Amino acid sequence: MVRELVAQSTPVNTSVLALVELHCVFHRRMREGRLSAQGVRQLAAEFSEHLENGVWKLLPVPERLLRQTASLVVAAPADCFLRSADAIHLTTAHDLGEREIWTTDRHMLASAPLFGLRGRQL
User: Fold this and answer.
1) Rounded to whole angstroms, how far apart are CA atoms 66 and 24?
2) Do 71 and 37 have their domain in common?
3) pLDDT tens-digit map of 23-46
């Protein structure tokens, strides 16, 4: 499903934070025994190739965006489970004028409306 969505949405706009986050996901999968070290290297190479081919567009995180993120976080209700990287991704999407964000992360899905976005489950 993810590959189909990416193919329909090229380029996929995301914060430059995704560069590190995705590699951390690959590493976590290896730690959990779901991927081998070779599998991690293969996925990392594929992602790097996708970056070179323009499948993903990594957007900078300027101070202006971080300040905007901080303001949105302060305004969030107390029961909102919001991680810093998720908040930056959500603010980036909002700042781009996106209407929705696709993720497997339940906390990010629940927080999306606070950023004016519709959360879509992958």
Assistant:
1) 22
2) no
3) 999 999 999 999 999 999 999 999
